[in-house]
Every structure is written in C-alpha cells, then in structure tokens.
Amino acid sequence: MRIVLSSTSGVPIYEQIKAQIRAAILSGEVAEGQALPSLRQLARDLKVSLISITRSYNDLAAEGLIVNVQGRGSFVLPLDVDRVRGQLMEKARSSMTDAITAARTARVDRAALHTVLDQLWDQQ
User: Fold this and answer.
1) Domain residue ranges of the chain, discontinuous segments joined by +
2) Which of 26, 94, 17, 11 is nearest to 48 (CA)?
C-alpha cells in the first residue's frame, strides 16, 4: 500500500492518510485480516507525527474498516458492504448539502449546479 501526502492540498494529513487506507481496503488492495503498518513505522515512513497516524487508524476503526488490537497492531476487518455504502452515501449527502448551500449563496441555479456535478462525475 502506497500513501502519497500533499502539504499543499489543504486537506489535513490524517484525512489524507485515512482516505488512502480506506480506498486501499475498499478496492481489495489490502485484504481482510491483513495487518496494517504499525503506528510508529507508518509515522516514520511518512515523516508525520504519531498523532496523525493514530487519529487516522482510530477513525478507520470507528468506521468499522479496521480493528486496533492492543499490543498486536491494526487489522482489516471483513467488509460490511451495506454499512460502508451507507457511510459513503451519508458523506456524499453531506458534501452535496454543503455544495447546494454554497451554490444558493452564489445564486447559481439548479441547472448550472447539475452541469457541474455531471462534469465532475465524468472526470472521476
């Protein structure tokens, strides 16, 4: 699993780490039961604080993607596809709510917002 961080993206480091580990788990790159790198090792490899790695791992555990086992490490849990889909849909809904609020503030009409969404969808 390769993690690439950007200090200029405006996204907190722990969020970048969490998102990339989540993507690796959801894509199957990191298999069920597989151990993640230790907190200290990953902090050393990425040259970031132990606090950033700990927060990322704790958030992933709260999402039900990994389990942190005291003294043994962190391991990928079996995927509960419905739960993961629900969490991702809630995140998408929240982001879209923020986008609608911003669009209304900027007086962007619904059709223009749909056009932007379609363009972004096609870029991904």
Assistant:
1) 13-76, 81-123
2) 17
> Residue 11 carries which DSSP code?
S
Estimate to the nearest angstrom the gap between the alpha carbon of 115 and the chain centroid.
26
| Second CATH level (architecture) for the domain 13-76 | Orthogonal Bundle (1.10)
Q: Which two tokens stand for residue 86?
A: 């629900």
SS3 call for 50:
helix
Q: Which amino acid is at 10?
A: G
Global pTM value: 0.71
What is the C-alpha separation between 86 and 71, in angstroms, rounded?
A: 31
Residue 40's CB is within 10 A of a number of other CB atoms, namely: 11
Write the single-letter amino acid at 43. A
Phi, psi for residue 28 in degrees, rounded to 5: 90, 0
Report phi then psi at 107, rounded to 5.
60, 40
The number of residues in the chain equals 124
Q: pLDDT tens-digit profile of 93-105?
A: 999 999 999 999 9
